[in-house]
């Protein structure tokens, strides 16, 4: 069985962002199933905590963008959320019985699947419930965990110190500053202090280019791979891979896998400069 650590060793990892979300309603069973059938080594999804303490797979805080009703997830029960049509905004899937999944269901449905899971809630209790579910399924080795909320990620790391986590926003900022300000001599110390073992970022954030050749190579020396989201153009993915990026998250895994079949990332010089 492939593990999350195996995924980190991939040279050109193509990961399904919210499942095969270009072809199916995002973060739903058909999207996840399709992504694994296509051969994606890892599937990304998002986690929210419901009012009654259940963990559901959904990106937004509210349900209106993708269902037939607009509910706030943290104020709604699982039963209320289950009553929604998760395929409503995709005409081909409307009324097909597609519903919001729980984390328990995901891990049961794909007992060997590797997942990148983003904890969306700012409430640290999501880390507690998440750790409990992972323990119940003995799924520690097949998840990479991230969160935009540093307090949530710190709580989870204390509960599950052996579980792989991506860098928190604060850790990303520190890594970028060290790289940009000529403080690379601090990198060995930073690699110890920064607990995230994967650098998952957009290539550009606002007017700041986050990913460059210097950052990629410097963190690679500490065993920290760079993975970029969200990449939907094959030529963009090829450019990133040539520069040393180890993985991309894409909404269109079928297109990306077909376009990059047989691709050699070391065939051309990287476009970035230090």
What is the element layout, followed by pairings?
Layout: H1 4-8, E1 13-17, H2 29-38, E2 43-49, E3 55-57, H3 78-82, H4 103-109, E4 115-119, H5 125-137, E5 143-146, H6 150-159, E6 164-165, H7 169-180, H8 187-193, E7 199-201, E8 204-205, E9 208-209, H9 213-220, E10 226-228, H10 234-242, E11 247-250, H11 253-259
Parallel strand pairs: 1-2, 1-11, 2-4, 4-5, 5-6, 7-10, 10-11
Antiparallel strand pairs: 2-3, 8-9
Helix pairs in contact: 5-6
GO molecular function, one term: phosphoric diester hydrolase activity
Protein name: GP-PDE domain-containing protein
Domain GP-PDE: 12-260
Structure description:
Residues 12-260 form the GP-PDE domain. This is GP-PDE domain-containing protein. With 274 residues, the protein is of the alpha/beta class. It has one domain: TIM Barrel (Alpha-Beta Barrel), CATH 3.20.20.190. The protein has 11 helices and 11 strands. It has helices spanning 4-8, 29-38, 78-82, 103-109, 125-137, 150-159, 169-180, 187-193, 213-220, 234-242, 253-259; strands spanning 13-17, 43-49, 55-57, 115-119, 143-146, 164-165, 199-201, 204-205, 208-209, 226-228, 247-250. The strands form 2 sheets. Strands 1, 2, 3, 4, 5, 6, 7, 10 and 11 form a 9-stranded mixed sheet that branches. Helix 5 (125-137) packs parallel to helix 6.
């Amino acid at each position: 069985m492939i593990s999350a650590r195996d995924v980190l060793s991939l040279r050109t990892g193509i990961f399904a962002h919210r499942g095969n979300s270009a072809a199916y309603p995002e973060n739903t069973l058909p999207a996840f199933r399709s992504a694994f059938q296509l051969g994606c080594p890892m599937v990304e999804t998002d986690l929210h905590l419901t009012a009654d303490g259940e963990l559901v797979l959904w990106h937004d805080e509210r349900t209106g963008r993708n269902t037939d009703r607009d509910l706030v997830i943290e104020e709604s029960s699982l039963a209320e959320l289950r009553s929604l049509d998760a395929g409503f905004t995709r005409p081909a899937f409307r009324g097909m019985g597609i519903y919001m999944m729980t984390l328990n269901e995901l891990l049961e449905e794909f007992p060997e699947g590797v997942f990148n899971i983003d904890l969306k809630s700012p409430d640290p209790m999501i880390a507690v419930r998440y750790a409990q579910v992972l323990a119940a399924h003995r799924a520690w080795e097949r998840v990479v965990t991230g969160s935009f909320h540093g307090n949530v990620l710190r709580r989870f790391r204390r509960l599950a110190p052996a579980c792989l986590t991506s860098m928190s926003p604060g850790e990303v900022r520190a890594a970028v500053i060290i790289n940009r300000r000529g403080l690379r001599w601090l990198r060995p110390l930073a690699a110890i202090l920064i607990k995230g073992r994967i650098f998952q970022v957009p290539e550009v954030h606002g007017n700041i280019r986050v990913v460059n050749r210097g950052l990629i190579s410097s963190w690679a020396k500490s065993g920290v791979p760079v993975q970029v989201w969200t990449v939907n153009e094959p030529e963009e993915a090829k450019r990133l891979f040539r520069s040393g990026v180890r993985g991309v998250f894409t909404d269109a895994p079928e297109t990306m896998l077909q376009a990059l079949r047989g691709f050699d990332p070391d065939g051309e010089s990287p476009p970035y400069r230090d």
